[in-house]
Amino acid sequence: QVQLVESGGGLVQTGGSLRLSCVASGSIFSLNYMGWYRQAPGKQRELVALIRSGGYTNYADSVKGRFTISRDNAKNTVYLQMNSLKPEDTAVYYCNVVGSSGYLPWGQGTQVTVSS
């Protein structure tokens, strides 16, 4: 089964940028929808961005215009470029499939902390 490893998080100031990467241990070519999720302390995990294999993207209103999701099927990697970061973006970020067929095993995530 495909395993996911997220990286690229860190501590940044408000207005800063980070680029997250999610590398899959197997091919993601057949995984139609991939997404980035985040979970802040005391809150439920939420989907913030998704990308279809053909390139269609969609974003949560809270990140629209600031975050950009992309994927490189040849490298089995999904990216999340995060600009104009805000303190409310602080969370652990995960990638996984999007859809009703069930999730892949969750990775360890990558911590993003935005200081005010």
Summarize, please.
This protein has strands at residues 4-7, 10-13, 18-24, 33-39, 46-52, 57-59, 67-72, 77-82, 91-97, 110-115. The chain has 116 residues and is mainly β.
Overview features:
single chain; 116 residues; mainly beta; six-stranded mixed sheet; four-stranded antiparallel sheet; 49% strand
Would you kindly provide a written description of the structure presented here, covering whatever features stand out?
Strand 4 and strand 5 form a beta hairpin. The strands form 2 sheets. A 6-stranded mixed β-sheet has the order 2-10-9-4-5-6, with no helix packed on it. It is built from no helices and 10 strands. Helices cover 0% and strands 49% of the residues.
What is the element layout, followed by pairings?
Layout: E1 4-7, E2 10-13, E3 18-24, E4 33-39, E5 46-52, E6 57-59, E7 67-72, E8 77-82, E9 91-97, E10 110-115
The main pleated sheet reads as: 6 strands, mixed
Characterize the overall form: globular
Task: Give the helix/strand class.
Answer: mainly beta
Radius of gyration: 13 Å
Q: What's the N-to-C terminus distance? A: 40 Å
Helix content: under 10%
Assess the beta-strand content as a share of residues: over 45%
Low-confidence stretches: none
Strand arrangement across the biggest beta sheet:
2-10-9-4-5-6
The helix/strand order is EEEEEEEEEE
Given the structure, what is the number of helices? Answer: 0
Number of strands: 10
